[in-house]
Amino acid sequence: MLQLEGISVFYGGIHALQGIDLTVEDGKIVTLVGANGAGKSTMLNSIVGMVKPSAGTIIWNGNAITGRDTKDIVGAGLVLIPEGRHIFPNLTVNENLRLGAYLHGDAATINENKEKCFKLFPRLKERMNQHGGTLSGGEQQMLAVARGLMASPKLLMLDEPSLGLAPIISKTIFAIIREINASGTTILLIEQNARAALEIADYAYVLETGVITIQNTGKALLKDSRVRKAYLGET
Fold first, then answer.
1. Which uninterrupted H or E stretch holds 229?
2. Residue 66: count of CB within 10 angstroms of its CB
3. What distance in Å separates the CA atoms of residue 230 and residue 226, rounded to the nearest whole number?
4. CB within 8 A of 124, min separation 6: which ones?
5. Which of 11, 53, 93, 160 has the fewest CB atoms within 10 Å, measured from its CB?
């Protein structure tokens, strides 16, 4: 289980996160809903150690990981798929995947994880020797997710996985997120498509200018008039 207790983050004079309390239970899908600039990506970056909180504690399976190196946090099972994919365009699909497994020295584990990725994303197997930069946007997102899975995550964090994708590809990505979760991986999701994210979420938080303003089950937030008006385009 992941717990954030009183997490605050400053960017210069901007108080990006203001005393955030958040829990992600094992085996669940938890989503963060909020406008651009609300602090959602900052929260994920603070969890993986890329941003250092000025106050508060991040606890993973009973152990405080606040301020630890990102490598150690990934090694503990927390993996972030960043917004914008950030694959290595000049490397092949296979090389991108192998870099995702840089903490695994065991060839058998690497091959096993790769086969699991190819089962989820058959298209990547077809393009195994193709450079990442020549893939379509949807295929690059598949590669970004697969590369994260190569690290054997216990908690997979995804930042805007459907951004810039055609609706049919987005639908595929959400189906795969469900499948990853069903296989035992906990999910923490940031997603511009609030409706799609809430539909698959066990629990959800609304983040507004660095403060959690609403929290409930995904189904409950789909019916919440405040959420429907602000994030689902309804009046």
1. helix 225-231
2. 19
3. 6
4. 93, 97, 117, 118, 139, 142, 143, 146
5. 11
Q: Return the number of other C-beta atoms located less than 10 Å from residue 14's C-beta.
A: 12
Tokens of 151: 């690290």
pLDDT tens, residue by residue, 158-174 = 999 998 888 999 999 99
30-82 pLDDT per residue, tens: 999 999 889 999 999 999 999 999 999 999 999 999 989 999 999 999 999 99
Contact 184, 24 (CB under 8 A): no
CA atoms within 13 A on the CB side of 29: 23
pTM: 0.94
Report which DSSP code applies to 121: -
**Integer angstrom CA distances of residue 137 from 86, 121, 134, 197, 218:** 11, 14, 9, 20, 28
Q: Is 12 exposed, middle or buried (0-12, 13-18, 19+ CB in 10 A)?
A: exposed
Distance CA 64, CA 49 (A): 12
